[in-house]
Amino acid sequence: MVKQSSAQRIIEIKPVSDPNVKVYPRTIRGLFNSWRVAFVWLTQIVFYGLCWLPWNGRQAVLFDLEQRRFYLFDLVLWPQDTIYLTILLLISALALFLFTAVAGRLWCGYSCPQTVYTEIFLWVERWIEGDRPQRIKLDAAPNSGKKVAKKTLKHGIWLAISLWTGLTFVGYFTPIRDLLSGLSNAGTGAWEIFWILFYGGATYGMAGFLREHMCKYICPYAQFQFVMFDRDTLIVAYDAQRGETRGSRPKNTDPRATGLGDCIDCSICVQVCPTGIDIRDGLQLECIGCAACIDACDQVMDKMNYPRGLIRYSTENAVEQGFARQEIVRRTFRLRPMLYLAALLIISGASAWSIATRIPLKIGIEKERAVLYREGDNGAIENSFRMHLTNASEQARHFRIEVSGLPGIRVLGNDLANVPAAGMQEIALTIQAEPGSIGSGSHPILFRVIDAADPAIQIEQKASFWMP
Ligand code: SF4
Ligand code: SF4
């Protein structure tokens, strides 16, 4: 028998839940729910809080598009540093590949913004409208003052959360304190208002209405991640060998005596599922790996005095072949994840080394083109240059400019430059060389800029000197 890959099997499975049927996830408590709640708090404390953190007299994390500078704590990135942002994207992609190959959809189930905001919106919904049965009843009931009041309150809180989320998002691109004071005195720019409303509206629509449809039909990651799955990837799995034949029975019934499996067909695993699927139908595209069904089924197993784990985190191979936990862990170290890990470690290590040894000084030199050379009062030949110095550190720095490469070459006049913290300075330079020492035409020279206080910080740049 030829075994299919996970991707092949899942592609063949069509969405089993009807997109027109609204999903009312039932409240569930348990180990994995606690983890999910913890991740909601953790991610949101970071997201809502980080933009308020001051650092060196500015915002610790700020993507200042207007000034074209990205601040990440002590690191100041300039447009010339976009290589680091590219590497960051590459590292994120590799980390996602590694994580998905090993742990499946844990990102989707615990940390994806769609999951996190849907969870927050569900907390509000449950607090106002009640648990699954009450919400179904309320939606089916005719309009009344009480129903309108509940819906208005729910949407009001959702909108408040959404707008604050939009404001926070924009606060990573415009200093959040300036943004807030601008809003209070009508001084906020049109683009900022647009992005606050856009991001806030997206949060409201995706977490309040689209919910599981985002994961099923829109999210590209959900569509392609199964390519990274194999039969040893961690998934939420129903143990059909143990559970079937399913059927209801009185508590404490020994299923072996009745010819039944351990599944009592209570459907609670379906009722708690945020995407409205039945995990007993096997691995499905819609399963975000949130483990709500594991918590639900474990509680049912406890009540029936059956062992936990009828639904559990496992792998396809482990469920089919009854692997012990050690074998599941051992198979984590298979070739594909190890290749991702090796690439991740090499790229992360190289970029960490590059950032740690980075010289916080950038230089650009332009030769004045209109006049290639001229003769000075003393008969020396002069070339004019424009030097752009960028101080990528957060202290003002004083630099000494030197030039070499030709006999007697020197900087005429002031050879010092003061560049403010995280600032730029443009300097007009006149360079002199002795005539007759070399032939006519272009000759390579070397500029060297040295930090007066710390000579270890220096940078060189080649240029051309023209002689008559
Ligand atoms: S919760 Fe467990 S016992 Fe109940 S239907 Fe689902 S798998 Fe079967
Ligand atoms: S099947 Fe289980 S793990 Fe998958 S989305 Fe539904 S509740 Fe979450």
If you had to describe this structure to a student in words, what would you say it looks like?
- The protein has helices at residues 6-12, 31-50, 82-103, 106-111, 113-129, 132-140, 145-170, 176-184, 190-210, 212-218, 220-224, 240-243, 255-258, 268-271, 292-304, 316-321, 325-330, 335-356; strands at residues 54-55, 58-59, 61-64, 69-72, 75-77, 235-238, 311-314, 361-367, 374-375, 381-391, 397-404, 410-412, 416-419, 424-433, 441-451, 458-467.
- It is α+β, with helices and mostly antiparallel strands.
- The protein has a domain at 361-467: Immunoglobulin-like.
- The strands form five sheets. Strands 8, 9, 10, 12 and 14 form a five-stranded antiparallel sheet that branches. Strands 13-11-15-16 form a four-stranded antiparallel sheet, with no helix packed on it.
- It is elongated and about 110 Å long.
- 27% of the residues are buried.
- Mean pLDDT is 90; it is low at 7-16.
- The protein binds iron/sulfur cluster (2 copies).
- One iron/sulfur cluster is lined by residues 243, 263-269, 280, 296-297, 300, 310-311.
